[in-house]
Amino acid sequence: MWRLTTTIPNECVVAISGGADSVAILHFIKRSHRKVSAAIFDHGTGLHDITYPIVKKMCDEMGVELFVGKISDTDNGKKSPEEHWRDERYRWLESLGKPVITGHNLDDNIETYLWSFANGNAKFIPSVRNQIVLRPFLAVSHEEMVEYCVKNNLQYHDDPSNKDFKYTRSKVRYGLKPEIEKINPGFRNMIKRKILNGENNIS
Question: What is the DSSP secondary structure assignment for residue 163, as one 8-state letter?
Answer without folding.
Answer: G
